Every structure is written in C-alpha cells, then in structure tokens.
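Q: For a teaching session next week I want to show students how multiple molecules come together into a single three-dimensional assembly. I've collected the sequence lines for a complex. Could you give me the predicted structure tokens for the whole thing so I can convert them for display?
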Amino acid sequence: MYTQGLDQQGQPDSKRDGPESAADLEAFQKRVDDEEKIEAKDWMPEAYRRTLIRQISQHAHSEIIGMQPEGNWLTRAPTLKRKAILLAKIQDEAGHGLYLYSAAETLGVSRDEMVADLLSGKAKYSSIFNYPTLTWADIGAIGWLVDGAAIMNQIPLCRCSYGPYARAMVRICKEESFHQRQGFDILHELCNGTAEQKAMAQDALNRWWWPSLMMFGPSDNESKHSAQSMAWKIKRFSNDELRQKFVDVTVPQADFLGLKMPDDELVWDEKSGHYRFGEIDWQEFIEVIKGNGPCNQQRLAKRRKAHDDGEWVREAAHAYAEKHAAHKDAA
Amino acid sequence: MSNKEWPLYEVFIRSKSGLSHRHAGSIHAADDQMALDHARDTYTRRSEGVSIWVVRSSQIVASDPAESAAFFEPAEDKIYRHPTFYKIPDGVDNL
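A: Of course. Below is the structure for the complete assembly, covering every listed component.
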C-alpha cells in the first residue's frame, strides 16, 4: 500500500536545531550523492527530517486505513481458503503500518503524535482507500492493481537515502508480492468462471483502474517538490515515470485475463515502446485528497471508533504492567 | 486520548541457529512479555526467527555519530593489525 505524500515538503523548523550552515548542508548533500545512508542520529537538514516524517507517517497511515476496504469482505470471503489468505494479507498491512511508524519514530516524532494527526484528519493517507469495495472481485482488483501500483512505488524506496525507511521498505516489498499475486489469483479464477463472475471482474477493473493510476500522485508538471526529494534521494523516479511503468506491465496482464481496460485512448506505441493512455480525472483526485471521496468520512470514523474502543485495553495493559513492576520491586 | 504511550522496545531476531541476533525494528509494549509477543507478531509472521531479544530503547547506549571520527580514530593508524600489512617472502607457503 502507498501514499501520495511524496511531493510535500516539510517546513523547516529553525527553532529546533538553530540555523543550518552552508557547510553542513553541503556535507550532507555529499553523503547523499555518494549513496551513503543517513541514519537516525546523524545530522540532517530540518526540511529533510520533516519531509521524511510526513512521508513515512502518511505511508504508515495508508497501511492502517488500507485494512478497512479489505476487512469489509473478511466475513464474506467465498471460501475458507480465501478467508485465511485475506486475513493474512490484512495482518500484513497492520505489520507494514507498524514497521513504518517505528521508522518515523527514529526521526523524533512520537507514535501518539502520529496517531493523533491521523484521527484528527490533519494527516493524509492514500486516496485509494477512500473508494468502496462493492463486490468480492474488488478484493482481487485491490491486490492486483493497488498492491501492484504500491510495489512499483515502493521498490525504489528500498534504496531511499534514509536507512531506517529503506530497511522497512525491504521487508514490506518482500511481503507485498504475495498481496499482488493473491489478488491476480482471485481475478483469474473469476475470469475463468461463469459469465456473471467474469462480468464482476470486469466491473471491478472498471472502477479500480483510474484510482490506481492516481496512486502515483500528480503529474510531473504539477509536482512541485519532486526535485528536492530526488536530490535527497528519497525519491528515485518521477510520478509519471512510475505510472508509465505500471501501465506497461499491467495492460498485458489484463489481456491475459481477458479483461478490457476502461480507457478508449489506451494504445500500444511501437515507437516509444510504451502504452499511451488517456488523461486522468485530476479533479476527482483533488476532491478525494481534500476529503470528498466516497468513503473518507466512513474510514476516519471507523478508525476513531477502533481507537476509542481499544482504550480500556491500553489502560488495562498499563495497570497490569505497573502492578507487576511493583511486585518485582517488593520482592 | 488520555493514555500515555507504551514504552518503545528494540527488537533483535536470530533468524536461525548459528547466526547472531540482528536488529529488526522496534515496537511499543506495556511490559516485557507483551514486547516479546508484539515482536513475534510484527517481525516473524513468516518464520523469520528462532529467537527474539527485546530491550527497552531507553536502555541502549549508543555512540554519537557526530563524534565518530574521533571515537574510532585509535583504530585508523594501526594498519599492522591487518595481515596484509606484512610482506611474505617468495617461497614461503602456508602462512
């Protein structure tokens, strides 16, 4: 799973570390240019730290919210096998959220702050999770397309200049491949089933294709802060480059399934060796990011409720830990 | 949100017997047992480990990267600690 937070820069907070000297900035850039990894306690420009905190925490939030659309089908999975697989996938998403939160915490932000920002609506998460999962085929489409787009985005992040983030991404990418394959497997089965099952798969593709392309973020012309993230080697490829790569590998897979991409302008361009595709509805993208997607309110409300409902558990765990610590001291 | 955050633990995992434990990441937990359980659920869902260590992050003493040049300097000029420092005459084997 993934977030579009890539292009937003953190604001420098000069109160924190005092002024940054040109020499420090230059030495830092040289380390990055030499492909040295930056580690948690190393000196780094405040804007680099802020950018990473924002990107990693939004990425983590996306994993956590991303459990909801799939959780919607957990109790209605068609077989026990599919249910067990889906459960394992959703557990992975929780795990990915936790790896990422812990990577963000190395930059000096607390877990509580990040959770509070998610629950208050201040922090963003990937727009893709604000779309509803209407049929079982949507679970296939999410695995195949959404996780497929995520992999495309995340593989370059394994080489991100910030060590703890890069290491978390290595773990995530290993697990993501199972997610994509199980999704494709669901659709493959549906496409080889009855006419209704195949129509269900086509309907899911129709609804998820464009939102999946939006996952790569704004087009390069609109993407204001890409250059800085590229210079810092947080980002290795531009949004449009990754989007093109995703289209190029995914269209033949749709052909294999016997499904049609919902894009009349989609055409193979022999000369460039790429598929050319239609224009994304950027207005829809902006609306979903702003909070006006089909499920934004539902997703946040459910996350808040889960957090509130868990409060007594957190309190009980504290009380238990304190009681046992007191016993130990007395002994 | 009235509750305070659970303490942070660092997680070290031995992937198989014969290898040393290696840092995997961190987790939050209210106490040591919960830290082990959370570390297992978070970092070994695919049998990545046969043994887990957890330690409160606040208990780790780390060297300062800003001081690392001076800190590690004593090792820099002792090249005679490396076998490559010594020139072996031709005709000497098994050394």
